[in-house]
Amino acid sequence: xxxxxxxxxxxxGLSDKSTENKKxxxxxxxxxxxxxxxSAIYILGDLFDTWxxxxxxxxxxxHRTITALDELVRKNIQVHYLLxxxxxxxxxxxxxxxxxxxHLDSYSFIHEGxxxxxxxxxxxxxxxxxxxxxxxxxxxxxNIKLYKLLHPDLGISLxxxxxxxxxxxxSGKKYLEKDELNSIIEKIxxxxxxxxxxxxxxxxxxxxxxxxxxINLGDWIEHFTYAVMQNGVIELKKWTEQ
Length: 242
Known about the structure:
This protein is an alpha/beta fold. The protein has a single domain, classed as Purple Acid Phosphatase, chain A, domain 2 (4-Layer Sandwich), CATH 3.60.21. About 35% of the residues lie in helices and about 25% in strands. The protein contains 7 helices and 11 strands. Strands 4-3-2-1-10-11 form a 6-stranded mixed sheet, with helices on one face. Strands 5-6-7-9-8 form a 5-stranded mixed sheet, with helices on one face. Helix 1 runs parallel beside helix 2.
């Protein structure tokens, strides 16, 4: 039976060029190996550390990753992308040019008899009021149109600075305690879902609940983890170079 794969939080462009080249190489190898037996690949946000998309301009760099995604689609593998907290300004490039299915918030589907709920994982904590306000500001269509009046060189440069400032502000803060996370997951599972999958926390987690299962995908910065599902069974795994 074909497999479906889930990854999150590669944040390409986060670090120095050498580190990012190595990370990108691993990610492309993952896509190539997954393409041998995948029917679908789900990216749960923040593939790039910063993504600001103009009508005719996208950020330079990591063209090999974009090519790899294009090749997946050309092999008739469904690719889905859920927007993360670093994907506020994604427009229609992934959909119109690459044929990738883009989802603004959560996405759910049934696979092999399992009802699956996907979300990047941001904005759930009651404490994270500031982020919820910023999310509404950054995703406001009028604000995006006004921001695009800036020259791409300036607009993308500022977007990268916003990303770094956001990380500096949030680093070391634990917005989502374990009890609060468990309560959120249980609430979703009680709505009839068998599996809940998220990213954002950058911590690999696979946890059984009474009526379902939760997976946090970790990241492709330190952990290089992903999930794979086949025959109704989902596993969290660590990528090692083939």
